[in-house]
Amino acid sequence: MNDTSRAGGAASLDVSIASKDYHSASGRPLRALEDLRLTLPAGKAGAVVGPSGCGKTTLLRLIAGLDKDFVGTIALPEHGRLGMAFQEPRLLPWRSVSDNIRIAAPHVSEAEIAALLDELGLAEHATHFPRELSLGLARRVALARALAVKPDLLLLDEPLVSLDAALARDLREMIARLIDERRITTLIVTHDLREAIALGDKLFLLSARPAHVLATLDVPTPRRHLEKEAAEIIEARAREALAKARAEPPQSKQ
Ligand SMILES: Nc1ncnc2c1ncn2[C@@H]1O[C@H](COP(=O)(O)OP(=O)(O)O)[C@@H](O)[C@H]1O
Ligand SMILES: [Mg+2]
Predict the structure, then answer these.
(1) What is the CATH number of domain 8-81+151-247?
(2) In the chain, at which end, N or C, are there fewer CB atoms within 10 A of the end residue's CB?
(3) Distance in angstroms (rounded) separating the CA atoms of residues 94 and 202
(4) What is the pTM of this model?
């Protein structure tokens, strides 16, 4: 927002999806998203929270342009360069950690790659291969790869899922620091409300499938200074907003 080079372009991420259906060969279509709207201002971190199977990964794939079969519009931040880390790290198995990053970002200098590895605590793993890495390390490599392209929009799908509590906390703090320092517009998908509060400036609370946004909440305190009590208040507010939205379904829905 304070970057004037963006002036005149769509600085925010604007998503307005009327519907997204999956078509199987035989059965009837499965509606994954319906009437899903969200706006994420430039430089902010948005956390999309919703139950398992509601359509979160589907939403990220549409935003990333990996799936164009939907009804609606998606306006990306200006320049539209994307960095994405999938739920599964999806590293090239026959390439070293630094090669995985180099291949994704061929125009980035060796010094920059080294700095990025250092920043993510991966320097000593630069020559390792993906099979030699734990899931936590592999996720960090996937994050480094997504950041290496200097994205205008960073998309993270369940970055902490399946990690044990201590590793999840370390990676969560690392992600919070990176997005605070770089001020990249970031959309994080999670099924965990606490994780969303710890990472997001804005929370988008999704319904069950077909997913739409039931409520949007701002997290007022900067992430790194969010005290436990303040986080608990936001969590209570989010649960209240969800309960209220579920009790009053919008009239437009059939
Ligand atoms: N390629 C696909 N073909 C058919 N159905 C799919 C496909 N991908 C996802 N789905 C279905 O769409 C729904 C939403 O999936 P997904 O976006 O992965 O949910 P989430 O990420 O919130 O767990 C689920 O019911 C899932 O089974
Ligand atoms: Mg998913």
Answers:
(1) 3.40.50.300
(2) C
(3) 38
(4) 0.91
